Amino acid sequence: MPAPEADRTAPSGPATADRVRLVLRSLGPLCDPDGFVPFDRFMEVALYAEGLGYYAGDRSPTGPGGDFYTAPQVHPLFGATLGDRARAVHRALGERRPLRLVELGPGDGSLAAGLFAAFREAGGAPDGTEYLLIERAPSLGRATLERLGEAADSAGVRVRLGTSVGGDGPFEGIVIANELLDAQPCRRLRWTGREWTELGVEIDGAHLRPAERPLTSPVPPPALPSGPEPGTIVELSPVAEAIVREIADHLVGGVAIVVDYGAEEEEIVRGHPRGTLAAVRGHRPVDDPLEAPGATDLSAFVNFSRVRSAARRAGLVELAYSSQAEALGRWGFPARFEAAVRRTRSSEEEVRLRLAAKNLLFGFEGFRALELAARASAPALRGLT
Description:
Blueprint: H1 16-27, E1 36-38, H2 39-48, H3 71-74, H4 77-93, E2 100-104, H5 110-121, E3 130-134, H6 138-155, E4 158-162, E5 171-178, E6 187-191, E7 196-204, E8 207-214, E9 233-236, H7 238-250, E10 251-263, H8 265-271, E11 278-281, E12 284-285, E13 297-299, E14 302-303, H9 304-314, E15 317-323, H10 324-331, H11 333-343, H12 347-363, E16 367-373, H13 378-381
Parallel strand pairs: 2-3, 2-5, 3-4, 5-10, 10-14
Antiparallel strand pairs: 1-7, 6-7, 6-9, 7-8, 10-16, 11-12, 11-13, 15-16
Helix pairs in contact: 4-5, 5-6, 7-9
């Protein structure tokens, strides 16, 4: 979540001209014969290419030293509330079973640290609890693992790094993806009034520039909007949908919790007809997403219509879909907040706590929480909603 009052210089690394050259080199094999690259391929390189991508280094992109804030960094109550939810899911599944938690894109570990604090307050994590960090940037993953060591030990949790959701085969547990899907490469499609076209970039000598071509690659269901206003842009992420399918393929029991900003496709098209692509650096918006690839965060609203459709087709059962505030209410945030208020030691501390809670409930109003259960576990978990 951007914080406009903060400011920071661009992250260290190659200068802008060098970055563009590196991107051009990486995009070369992905080009069509006419030099066109669909936007999702460009976004993949700009965010994740080794040695270049925004998320490929060892610097956390979040917090005061990064480019945006996430809910776990606003206050540990967010992670602690998810810890309460994890314990509730574990009880519903059967407390004698070991608990495995898998966090996708853990960033600096703020969510996990809050979750471990909730376990510690409850007398420790369930026996055999394991927390798996799935981080695409190996150096960032190692730094987060080291940062979480003491907190994990004090809560009785074994933390380790993993390569993917399915890296260890099928499992039962809880998958958490907080502000992950918005950062997955997305296709950008535009309705001209007669047809849908694909937006992307074009390599023009030593430069990148926006480009457009007729739509040739198929779009999986649901169908694209029928007859929107000319110029309407729809964004969808095949990678985000693939992540959901991977979860479905390996989560044989338990729940997946997805929290991110986004909405249903109809709502996005109505409220953002020119698309939702955003570029951010130093907690400030960047006008041109092609300006400094690799030094700028790129994201788009999560198209929950398509993510939910992919989940259903993959066999996951939807338990709940709501705003983040409503989900926090279901998960026990009010009781945890009141307990935190009673523990404050000064009026100033209480004011800071109340402001953080207000931010979590109302500052993230565009965020949605989607809970998906493995089909075998759905009957036991429905009572939690």
